[in-house]
Amino acid sequence: MSRIACLRIPKFQIAVHQKREPELKKKAFVLLAEGQKPTDKINLSRARVFMCSDLASKKFVAAGMKWPEARATCANLSWRQCDAKSYREAQKNIVNELVVCSPRVSAREPGIFILDASGMQRLGGEGKLCRELLKLISKLGYTNGFVGVADSAFAAMVASRSKNRWHIIPPGRDLEFLKPLSITHLSLDADLQDVLVDLGIKSMGHLAQIPAENVSDRFGAEAINAQQLVLGFDKVQPNIPVADKKFDASVEIDGPIESLNQTVFLLKSMLDHLQNGLQKEGYCAEELLLQFFNDDELFYDRPVKLVRPSHNSKFLLEVLRLTIEAHPLSREYTAIRLEVTRFCKESFQQTKAEVEQGLNANTADQQTNLLQKFFSRLGENSLVRPIPNDQHSPDLSGVWLPVFQTNKATGQIISSSSSSKTGDSGGQNVIMVDVDYIESKIGKSGLAAGLVFKQLPNAIPVFVEYSKGAPKAIAYQGKWHQIVKITESECLSGLWWEEQFQKSYYVALIEPKYELASCMLVLLVRDHLQKIWSIEGVFD
Amino acid sequence: MNHQSVVQLKEQFEQLFPGKWLVDSRTHKNIQTGIPEIDFGILHGLSRKRITEWSGAFSSGKTSVLRAVAARWCAVGMHVVYVDTFDRLRAHDWAFVESGYAGAAPLNMVPVEAKESGKFWVVRNLKGAKLEHDALWCVEQLIRSGMIDVLIFDLGSSLSISSKISARLQRSLEKSRTALILLKDEDVAKNSNSSWGCQSRFSFGWSASNVSCELGLSGIVSIIPSIKTELWKEGMTKNIEVNIRSHVSNCLFTHSQIPDRRTPKT
Fold this sequence. Notes:
The complex is a heterodimer of chains A (about 550) and B (about 270). With about 550 residues, chain A is α+β, with helices and mostly antiparallel strands.
């Protein structure tokens, strides 16, 4: 029979913030949550209290309150935003420390850790384990902790909620312990819990007594899972923690350096070191972090994304060189640090993983190198391809999509043509054009029509002269231009849900009125909302 | 010796001396445009490894002809890149170039069946003080990559190619298979000269006397003037007039529009 210990740190998120900022221990403060917005963008009037410190609770601040309401309740209340990433890191650190007490340790939800407590009889007993666990987390800065030991993880978690610092349920007595306790411990859906309470099933003992078939038929899968937990059939087991792999290299120099050649030389040796590490473990770098220091002061901190996972030091060096050329160092430096922030397993299906269909390996390499150069120097949106978008506004009926999109999960380069078929365009909303419909109605040549339009950076307002209700001449670039021919207006409006437009579009062939010059074909636009005429571009 | 034996012999020689015996469309010296006056006149198409100037007034029809030709190149599997230095293109106009469809096209253009679709990429978002520097860097990198068949460099009206830059580009071109086209907006009044190092030059302008208009139910729905073109190569010139045909522009909108829910019911 297995024995499992559960360590619970109440209000773990609060404890993490207090550990990071010790002055918060003496203050009433709350954690605010509003989606995943960064701290500087959080809307305080809409944010709600996610968790509050003990001091805040004493001043009647409660979770779920809006921030203005909580501030009205407690005038000197401070706030911090929820930071899931730092909570995960703190949990990981604790797991790494708990390995001293038991080889199998797993982190569950924030502040809950389960450990394998089997075979402790000959090692001082389970009581000793509990004391050691509490002592250890106290050393790490988490003074408030509770431990429960039972046969199953669920019973151990419930036991850790008792008032005592630790609670050990003797072997085989889990059901006896759980029987009198409320079903609220089972974290059931609110509706199901209400139904059970209304039916008089208020304790876990009541739930355990109902035949499994009846529970399944009447209350569904969730209730049967809950009953299994009460009966001791809990599949949750602690695992052996996997140590995080880290690939980084740093160099400290005696004297300051500024030259690019010397920098490249240093980076080469660092990349060789990283290449060895990555190759040994069978990994490829997906993203690097390049940092330059001047006497402990970090002044250059740049993530470098790769279009193709690689551990080739020559390729990586070229990427770093281009990055430094595109974003030069502002001053001399005394230390460099290079870290592989994201990496993936090396793929041994090179041809399939890296080459687009229809390309030979040589062309694919040329393409990858070209894309990486553009990516490093000019950014992701420098090399694009036009994709049709099913919108009626001329400006929105096509979008520019980056040629490359790196799939981090599989380490494959996915061409934007394949992603555009699914409508997933990496941030941009593209509505696919029904090409078959157009082909069936007016043929393939109906897909594209008209001359090439070249838009002006800013629409140029023009003065229009009418004759018999139709535009006859325009004042453009300080000269009168006669309208030789003009089309009927194409009236388009829409986007009332974003930025409404209501325009009439005319294609006009114009020529200067009082001098000899070539004619121009322009797009003359009447903006009905702003009540102005303008030229948005020319046809070339 | 029959034709099949010759082909087999060439294949064997190609294995021994690569790049000399089998000639495919990618290693042809000249690229055909599909416009007979250009392909069979003084020019014999556009030369690979050379610079060609494609110029005209800001609005003269030069880019429309170039788009039609680029669509044809893509249809036969060539890779075309357009360096849109000043971000003036609209994606909608170029969306089907890769598939070989380009909207307005010369009437006498020889049709081609799309076999293997080439790539059509555009370099955009070159902003800031180093715009010219970045644009030239892009052009050089694209030529050096060795995978681009035709590179179109939009100089607008403000950029120009100096003798030094021309020499550098020419050096890069000689090691590649790329044909570089300099797309240039010219001020007609200034009668500007061709760029440095150009092997051939195309000059475009609207023909005001020959304008085709498509009539709709209540008036003109499309205006397409024909295009006057002057071809120049090594001192020889030839004038042609290109008539353009196109469907009436139809929007790509194939679904019903979302109604404006703010409009009160009548």
